[in-house]
Specification:
The chain has 258 residues and is mainly α. The protein has 13 helices and no strands. The longest helix has 29 residues.
Length: 258
């Protein structure tokens, strides 16, 4: 997939931490990247972004709703609500991929986005949605009439904000959270996979060598560009990354009915 991908290792299951270092105003302490990397064995920019988003990141990838998908135990009504809302992202996510093609700084970086856009966003995943929603009893009319939940609308707004910025690192930040966090929970699925294709194929779309390479590419691009950004630029990328993580957590909470 274009440039050699950053390794996307399997996340080790663990409980979400209950607290994070707090700054003067009660927000997670934003240790500058240059300060942080001096004291860590893995100074990747993407790792700094993820580390600044605890405990929310771990809460996303260990979320009970995501875990229920990996076990094939999500109730039909909850899975229906989740997929109907997730489908609301398809257009904005596709447009965000287009913004990545437009704003990337080299041909070599544009190619993986174009490939993913053609092979996944418009074929495999969209086909899955139509089959899965039909199996869950959702008609085309139901889907057309579905209103976005508040968290869905907020996530679409963030995608659109990143897209219209045409700022490549900001586009990468939102895409990376969407894909890396899903790899995080899907990689926790144990064998044998669920019999129900609605659960099984959703896991398969977000796990496996091709998806790991895709996540590795996104992380690798952030790792390539992030260290050279000025400090305020790094914090702006962190802001978009953190907002996306918090929205992922809210989205799972919504799906779970909490």
């Amino acid at each position: 997939m274009g440039p050699a991908p950053h390794d996307a290792p399997r996340d080790t299951p663990r409980s979400a931490p209950r607290s994070a270092p707090q700054g003067a105003h009660g927000t997670p302490r934003d240790v500058p990247y240059d300060e942080w990397r001096a004291g860590t064995a893995d100074p990747a920019f993407s790792q700094w972004l993820r580390s600044r988003c605890e405990p929310e990141w771990s809460a996303v990838v260990t979320h009970p709703f995501a875990a229920s998908i990996t076990r094939g135990e999500t109730p039909a009504d909850a899975m229906r609500r989740y997929l109907v809302q997730d489908f609301q992202f398809v257009d904005s996510f596709t447009a965000l991929l287009g913004a990545a093609v437009a704003s990337a700084d080299s041909f070599e970086s544009r190619v993986p986005f174009g490939r993913f856009l053609g092979e996944t966003a418009t074929t495999e995943e969209k086909t899955y949605f139509h089959r899965a929603l039909a199996a869950l009893g959702v008609t085309a009319a139901d889907l057309a009439a579905a209103a976005p939940e508040p968290v869905t609308a907020d996530f679409i707004a963030l995608m659109d904000e990143a897209r219209t910025s045409l700022d490549y690192p900001l586009v990468l930040a939102v895409l990376c959270v969407a894909e890396w966090s899903y790899l995080g929970w899907a990689s926790r699925a144990e064998e044998p996979p669920p019999d129900d294709f609605v659960h099984r194929e959703w896991i398969e779309l977000h796990e496996g060598p091709a998806f790991r390479a895709w996540v590795g590419f996104l992380r690798g691009e952030l790792d390539r560009l992030g260290p050279a950004l000025p400090a305020d630029g790094q914090l702006r990328v962190l802001d978009f990354f953190r907002r996306a993580v918090r929205l992922e957590l809210r989205f799972f909470d919504m799906a779970a009915g909490s």
